Amino acid sequence: MKPKIREWLRRYLPAEVLSVVATLAGAGLAWHLAPEQDLRAALAGTWAGNVAYFGWLLGQDVRLARRELQAQGRRYTSRTFGRNVRALAVEFGPAEVLDSFLIRPALMYWLPRWMGSRAGGILAAKFLADITFYIPAIISYELSKKRLRNFGE
């Protein structure tokens, strides 16, 4: 089990670090521009974090696919890129729909109010939402590895 945990940490931890920074920056900027718009800040934080998170993962997947194909003397094509995008959609699709449209924005809206701290509430919301996000995401990742992430075919 330890090798799996290391694999998941290598895959997800850098994206999470970028996502935390982007989440706080997105929510903070929204509050700066419209201080009384908590819903706007919750959505801005959610989507800024998503762009950073998935941008990093897609970049990593593209880099790994290019390296694997180059070692075989093959080119990375737009079809390969589509396969990378499809693999991410399979890995995160169900988890992401619930996370981005319901769980995370709701937590980011309510926890800052309940805690009396905007930054503390946003961070707490992010980490609580991550729990409901990673369980189905990791299961989907493991199920999709052989079929969608193997470029040796």
Automatic annotation (TrEMBL):
Transmembrane feature ranges: 12-33, 39-59
Lineage of the species this protein comes from: Bacteria, Pseudomonadati, Bacteroidota, Cytophagia, Cytophagales
Protein name: GtrA family protein
Organism: Hymenobacter latericoloratus
Sorted UniProt keywords: Membrane, Transmembrane, Transmembrane helix
